[in-house]
């Protein structure tokens, strides 16, 4: 008996909340923008089959894939190293895209493993396990992709005992247009572009904008939220490394989009509007002008409020 789990794409940072804010994405056309993992019992050990549109970009040896490593990690944590599982990863998100590709695979795999073994971990414990594994892979724990991918919606990272994150209200009238140009950018490389230290004024602006955005979200003050949805920590140093980003930002503003930012560390961008016709016009412009390589795509999205779920 097998089961299949879907984990949606996510925007880390959401511009204003570097490492502290993340949101899950759902294309309005009903397509699934995220990875899927199928699991079934096996005689012994861990096996992994890699399929999907981006499987060719994964390590050729399945044991080097993070989904395989997830299974080994999970079985060891559960004390069931002798149990066998057969996994299939349907890789639908490009690696190094700024859409939480690795988080989608990790979350889908650990959610599927937890379901397969009768849910030994509750929601909080499983999220902690996801963060622990993600930290082993990336070198440090960042929940801004993992948490929204798993839980859905817009998530604010708290990182206090007993509460890793908390959902904050979103603007249901907003459309999030996301565009991936088709190239990959290393998260580690994009982090290195940022300075080690910031001026006090920049830090104050960061705190002011993020707190004002959270306040506006609870007040459902969309005008204020757009005014403060600014990235002062990363975008000024990363924009030039993303081909065509500055031109796209200017063109989207001319089309009437309310604000534009970098999804995660890029090269995917997001742009916000409350008008569907404007969103579709932005998508068309991006498809014609921002998508440069094979595999690039653009979607008009809402936030995915469901998060990771079974789809079998």
From TrEMBL:
Segments forming domain GHMP kinase N-terminal: 65-153
GO cellular component: cytoplasm
Enzyme Commission designation: 2.7.1.39
InterPro entries in UniProt: GHMP_kinase_C_dom, GHMP_kinase_C_sf, GHMP_kinase_N_dom, GHMP_knse_ATP-bd_CS, Homoserine_kinase, Ribosomal_Su5_D2-typ_SF, Ribsml_uS5_D2-typ_fold_subgr
Sorted UniProt keywords: Amino-acid biosynthesis, ATP-binding, Cytoplasm, Kinase, Nucleotide-binding, Threonine biosynthesis, Transferase
Source organism superkingdom: Bacteria
Limits of the GHMP kinase C-terminal domain: 235-284
Pathways per UniProt: Amino-acid biosynthesis; L-threonine biosynthesis; L-threonine from L-aspartate: step 4/5
PROSITE patterns for the chain: GHMP_KINASES_ATP
GO molecular function: ATP binding; homoserine kinase activity
Any Pfam family hit: GHMP_kinases_C
Catalytic reactions of this protein: L-homoserine + ATP = O-phospho-L-homoserine + ADP + H(+)
GO terms under biological process: threonine biosynthetic process
Residues at which ATP binds: 94-104
HAMAP family xref list: Homoser_kinase
Annotated family: Belongs to the GHMP kinase family. Homoserine kinase subfamily.
Function statement: Catalyzes the ATP-dependent phosphorylation of L-homoserine to L-homoserine phosphate.
The name this protein goes by in its record: Homoserine kinase
Lineage, highest ranks first: Bacteria, Pseudomonadati, Pseudomonadota, Gammaproteobacteria, Alteromonadales
Gene: thrB
């Amino acid at each position: 008996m097998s089961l299949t789990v879907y984990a949606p794409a996510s925007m880390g940072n959401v511009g204003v909340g570097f490492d502290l804010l993340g949101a899950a994405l759902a294309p309005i056309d009903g397509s699934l923008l995220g990875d899927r993992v199928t699991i079934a019992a096996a005689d012994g050990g861990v096996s992994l089959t890699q399929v999907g549109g981006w499987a060719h970009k994964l390590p050729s040896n399945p044991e080097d894939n993070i989904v395989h490593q997830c299974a080994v990690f999970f079985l060891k944590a559960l004390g069931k190293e002798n149990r066998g599982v057969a996994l299939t990863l349907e890789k639908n998100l490009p690696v190094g895209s700024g859409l939480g590709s690795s988080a989608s695979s990790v979350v889908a795999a650990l959610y599927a493993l937890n379901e397969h073994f009768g849910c030994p971990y509750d929601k909080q414990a499983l999220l902690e396990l996801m963060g622990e594994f993600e930290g082993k892979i990336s070198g440090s724990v960042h929940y801004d992709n993992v948490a929204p991918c798993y839980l859905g919606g817009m998530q604010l990272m708290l990182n206090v005992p007993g509460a890793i994150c908390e959902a904050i209200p979103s603007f249901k009238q907003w459309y999030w247009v996301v565009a991936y140009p088709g190239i990959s950018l290393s998260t580690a490389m994009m982090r290195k572009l940022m300075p080690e230290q910031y001026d006090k004024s920049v830090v104050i602006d960061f705190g002011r904008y993020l707190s004002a955005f959270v306040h506006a979200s609870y007040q459902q003050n969309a005008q204020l939220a757009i005014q403060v949805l600014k990235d002062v920590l990363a975008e000024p140093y990363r924009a030039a490394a993303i081909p065509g980003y500055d031109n796209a930002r200017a063109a989207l503003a001319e089309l009437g989009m309310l604000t534009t930012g970098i999804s995660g560390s890029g090269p995917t961008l997001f742009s916000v509007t409350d008008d569907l016709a404007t969103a579709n016009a932005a998508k068309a412009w991006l498809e014609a002008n921002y998508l440069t390589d094979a595999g690039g795509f653009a979607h008009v999205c809402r936030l995915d409020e469901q998060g990771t779920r079974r789809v079998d």
